[in-house]
């Protein structure tokens, strides 16, 4: 488990709160401040939620195929049993201990595995079809996110971290998808990026996606703290910051976010990565230059990396170099970029998987995702280890390791069936055959499904037949 420094043990005495019994209770973090009967939403904030019927009605069994559970690195023969929105058991081959009325899906010759997670997308960003006057329109942004996210869902990506978008659009799409009100992955939204005035995502040349709708510029430690609180208020699942900043600013932001129970990830480079790592952020996005000492410190402090290799490689392939902007004053090349990844792996840095998928590039799904996994394979990962990074490790980095990322009894039923052996050949990830998200079959036979609504009865009495 990756548990960051924010989980500072604080012993709090609460006396007389529960039926007059004096209790000494130790709160390790905000999430532990709950009672056994309390239901919490399946998001990193774990906000109290009403219990509701959700997922598959009855029992769903996927049987006859290979199980890659992302706990073990070897696939095995077995069956996955789902009830409502939870995995209830993984049965060994030969066992049929499920209810007689269960719905059985034969997955012979296929592999069942946890849904994939993409740690870095911008689902609300404009696509090439977006009219110029709609780039900061929340309604347009929410609908184009829905379209882009469906392309991920079709390809077995059942959760994403959304890493910035305009105004409330990222939070709106997150809330709708959490409630199964549209087909799409779970969206853990950052909302806007917080950066220093003129910093990354607010630097020249200014574009609509670098406007105030997408980016919160902050100056001074107090303002950085305030920006974190504003982002929390809007509904963020995590905080995304970007260089540039001063050491006291990044420290204030990280401290405030952790106190609120949110993780912080940083899109930064060179000296800023060192400052962010010293301040105790939870992860660093992108490959981007950093010193060997900073890489060692990332490993020591358990700070993860989401390298997003392919999007940078795409830039090198088309332009030959990383196009610097006003705030990014360095150059780099394909090999030095890849060397950063190799050094991080050698140092033992936790590596997650994210694509930085954006705009028109969503139409290239799943190729971008597979390409990112192949960078890990090139750097020494087996396909199975790359899949574990894409599922279990990603869930842990998001603080969702207890609910997502593996096939285990009690986990949320985000499950995919692949027509092949992706744990042996990553290209087989292009053959996602079935997607179950929150216990609902949402992709089957090449189509997206939404559960049909159950009609509410009309108020009684007075059917027309009673009238004369
Ligand atoms: Zn990004």
UniProtKB/TrEMBL annotation:
The record places domain Amidohydrolase-related at: 111-442
Gene Ontology molecular functions: hydrolase activity, acting on carbon-nitrogen (but not peptide) bonds
Protein name as annotated: Amidohydrolase-related domain-containing protein
SUPFAM superfamilies reported for this sequence: Composite domain of metallo-dependent hydrolases, Metallo-dependent hydrolases
Under the heading Pfam families, the entry gives: Amidohydro_1
Keyword Iron included in the entry's annotation: no
Q: Which Gene3D superfamilies match?
A: Metal-dependent hydrolases, Urease, subunit C, domain 1
The organism sits in which domain of life? Bacteria
**Native organism:** Sphingobium indicum BiD32
């Amino acid at each position: 488990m990756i548990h960051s420094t924010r989980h500072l043990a604080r012993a709090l005495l609460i006396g007389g709160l529960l039926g007059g019994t004096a209790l000494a209770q130790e709160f390790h973090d905000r999430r532990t401040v709950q009672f056994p009967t309390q239901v919490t939403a399946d998001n990193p904030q774990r906000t109290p939620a009403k219990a509701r019927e959700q997922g598959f009605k009855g029992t769903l069994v996927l049987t006859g195929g290979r199980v890659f559970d992302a706990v073990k690195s070897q696939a095995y023969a077995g069956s996955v049993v789902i009830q409502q929105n939870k995995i209830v058991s993984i049965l060994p081959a030969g066992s049929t201990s499920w209810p007689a009325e269960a719905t059985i899906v034969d997955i012979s010759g296929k592999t069942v595995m946890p849904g994939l997670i993409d740690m870095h997308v911008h689902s609300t960003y404009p696509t090439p079809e977006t009219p110029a006057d709609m780039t900061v329109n929340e309604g347009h942004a929410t609908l184009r996110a829905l379209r882009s996210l469906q392309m991920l869902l079709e390809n077995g990506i059942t959760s994403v971290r959304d890493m910035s978008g305009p105004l409330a659009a990222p939070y709106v799409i997150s809330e709708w998808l959490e409630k199964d009100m549209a087909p799409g992955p779970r969206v853990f939204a950052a909302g806007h990026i917080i950066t220093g005035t003129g910093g990354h995502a607010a630097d020249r040349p200014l574009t609509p996606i670098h406007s105030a709708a997408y980016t919160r510029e902050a100056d001074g430690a107090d303002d950085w703290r305030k920006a974190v609180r504003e982002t929390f208020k809007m509904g963020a699942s995590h905080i995304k910051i970007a260089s540039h900043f001063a050491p006291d600013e990044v420290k204030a932001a990280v401290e405030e976010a952790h106190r609120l129970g949110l993780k912080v990830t940083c899109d930064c480079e060179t000296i800023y990565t060192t400052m962010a790592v010293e301040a105790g952020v939870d992860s660093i996005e992108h490959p981007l230059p950093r010193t060997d000492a900073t890489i060692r410190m990332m490993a020591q402090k358990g700070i993860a990396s989401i390298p997003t290799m392919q999007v940078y490689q795409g830039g090198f392939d088309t332009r030959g170099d990383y196009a610097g902007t006003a705030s990014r004053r360095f150059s780099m090349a394909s090999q030095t970029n890849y060397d950063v990844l190799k050094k991080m792996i050698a140092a033992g840095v936790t590596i997650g998987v994210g694509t930085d998928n954006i705009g028109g590039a969503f139409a290239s799904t799943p190729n971008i995702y597979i390409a990112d996994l192949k960078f890990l394979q090139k750097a020494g990962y087996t396909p199975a280890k790359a899949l574990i990074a894409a599922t279990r490790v990603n869930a842990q980095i998001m603080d969702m390791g207890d609910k997502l990322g593996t096939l285990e009894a009690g986990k949320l039923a985000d499950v995919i069936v692949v027509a092949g052996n992706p744990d042996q050949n990553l290209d087989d990830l292009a053959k996602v055959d079935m997607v179950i998200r929150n216990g609902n079959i949402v992709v089957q036979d090449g189509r997206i499904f939404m559960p049909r609504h159950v009609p509410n009865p009309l108020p009684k009495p007075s059917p027309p037949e009673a009238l004369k």
